[in-house]
Each structure stands twice: as C-alpha cells, then as structure tokens.
Amino acid sequence: MMAAIFYFSAQPFEGPELAPWEVAVRKLGHVAGYALLAFLWWWALLGRVRRPLLAAVAISLAYAVSDEYHQTFTESRNGSPLDVGIDAVGVGLASLWISKRWPRPRESA
Q: pLDDT of 6-25, one tens digit each?
C-alpha cells in the first residue's frame, strides 16, 4: 500500500484545473487509501507489538507527512498540510472501525 501511495504521489499533475467533483473523488481516495494503510499496519503488527493500533496510527500518520514532503520534489505538485489532515481522517476512521470491531481484551490484574 505504501508503494502504491508513493507511486501515485510521484506522478506530475498535467492538465486543466479539476472540476469540484474530481477533487472530491481524489480526496476520498486519500481517505480510503490511508484507512487501508492503517488497517494493514494494524493487521501486520497484531500479536507482534503491545499496542498494534497505536503503532499503526503512528506509522500511517508519519507516512502521510513524509508523502506530502515527497510531493514537494515532484514537478507540478506540492505538499499540503490539508492533505495530511485528510489522510488523518482515513486513519482515524480505520482506527475507530478497528476499535469497535475488535476491542482490546482487558488485562487482568
């Protein structure tokens, strides 16, 4: 998933201004992509670290920031804190879904 995000963010933007619906579809792609990234990291870390959801959120958000930085080196693209926020919405939705669907077992004292 990280490779796919990297690939798409490395593509220069060519063409006319986007229609509002095209912008909305692209932003929904950000949300969905980062939701999937957070889910996949949670799944990969499950049973390997003490707090896999927290680790998955941290990794996904760090990647969102690094991806926007990476876009500053791509012709006709720029990094945007707003896009990091949109990515964070996807991460948040995934973590909410995971925490509701698979709650952490309570530790006994």
A: 999 898 887 788 899 998 99
Q: Is residue 26 part of a domain?
A: no
Number of structural domains, the chain?
1
Record the tokens describing residue 36, joined without a space. 């999937």
Interior angle at CA 101, CA 96 and CA 105, nearest 5: 100
CA 2 to chain centre: 9
- Find tokens 């996949």 and name the residue: 40
**DSSP state letter for 106:** P
Structural domain includes residue 1: no
Q: What is the pTM of this model?
A: 0.89
User: Phi, psi at residue 97, to the nearest 5°?
Assistant: -60, -45
Q: What mean pLDDT, rounded, does the chain reach? A: 92
- Pairwise CA distance, residues 105 & 81, whole Å: 35
